[in-house]
Design a protein that fits this description.
The longest helix has 15 residues. The chain has one domain: Clavaminate synthase-like (Double-stranded beta-helix). The protein has eight helices and 13 strands. The chain has 269 residues and is of the alpha+beta class.
Length: 269
Amino acid sequence: MEIEDAIARYGVLVFKNQSLRNDEHIAFAIHFGEVEAEPVNTGRTRLTETKLNDISNLNADGSLMKADDRRRMFSLGNRLWHSDSSFKTVPASYSFLFAHVVPPHGGETEFADMRAAWDALPVDQRTRLTKLDAWHSLLYSRELLGFSDFNADERAKYAPVRHPMSRVHPISGRRSLFISSHIGRVEGMLVPEGKELIRDLMESATQREFVHSHSWSVGDLVMWDNRCTMHRGRPFDDQRHPRDLRRVTLVDASYGKTPQPTSIFASTA
């Protein structure tokens, strides 16, 4: 399929001037795989569609969330570099984010190419990373911002899961770095050493030459591949302006099934 070839090459696609109802948004995404069973809508009830993630600053009645709203505190973690659902046992493949309302300034989404980030690493570091795993949890990223008010259900739901620190894309065959702000520790390393490694890799992977910034307009549908990118939302004045984006996220059905070549070098296929 033309779109699948394009997303495998570029990692991020932008479809401008779309007009999508929620059901059409979901139907388009389903062409590319299975939708995640449970969106991450902690404490949110605004959207009735069970396959949509509510990426907004809105209450169910359309009013703006207050600055100290627990749901807002939780969602601030989206402003850290991450890939969707890396904190799940089976992480995400594609995400589809559609803009219904955007603020007049700010609120961009930045994307980092984790294939280019991998290719730029020294050979000895790539060799080391192919042997390392890291533990991911949604709670780890929220704790980075000082938010730790988790109840027992959340601690159980977001218990850490283990993933390799690099992976091979099932279509392109290219290896990419697999890191995220959701990482709290690296297997086999002392916690401070592991966090230092993740911080260094994060700085390297998000250099300007690896990053694209998307400025949103109403009607934008952005599709990205979590298997070879990270992303983050940028700040905007969420106490004065509404921002209503909605996301459908697909399960990576190939996860754990893709042959992992022993070569640490970039594929040019």
